[in-house]
Amino acid sequence: EGPEELVYNGDFAQGFAGWQTGSRLGFKEGTGVLGSVAAAVSSGRTTVHFVRKDSTNTHFESYLFQEINRDVEDLVELRLSLEMRLSHQSLSGGGYLGIEYPLWVRVNYLTVDSERTAGYGFYYQNIMNNRTDDGTPVSPDQWVKFVAPDNFMTLSPPPRRIRSIQIGASGWDYESQVTNVSLVG
User: Fold this and answer.
1) Lower Cβ count inside 10 Å, N or C end of the chain?
2) Tell me: the pLDDT tens digits for 144-159?
């Protein structure tokens, strides 16, 4: 058999079909300034566009979520890739906790004995020298293709079932786009 794509509508050609949108507030001070998630077309690509402005340095997170629930014990290789463009980021690096990025992706999975998450964050500036625990620096304002360095099937312990994938943006002010989200086994 050939490669199998586990993400449905990862190029967003069908808008948000197969995806759920969500958001998470940081503190009550930020409730007046919400981030948005919208489908957009950029450089001939259909993308998801995350935007938040005028946050007055308060935290907010917008995201897309897709249930996958696929048993992967039969796979020898499982790779994540996506294309992104980071246009704005007011919070340096990954924020104080090293987890607030203008774009991030998380793959949630079950192993033989636990539930785990493989997470990747992307940023283009870290003037304040904040933590960037799972962060990857990328060039600002241009399309960048990211291929995760890990073959998920070689993680220890390896995934038995992929539960879901989440893609989002968080921090203070941010603007980012993502498309061609892929998890190929």
Assistant:
1) N
2) 999 999 899 999 999 9
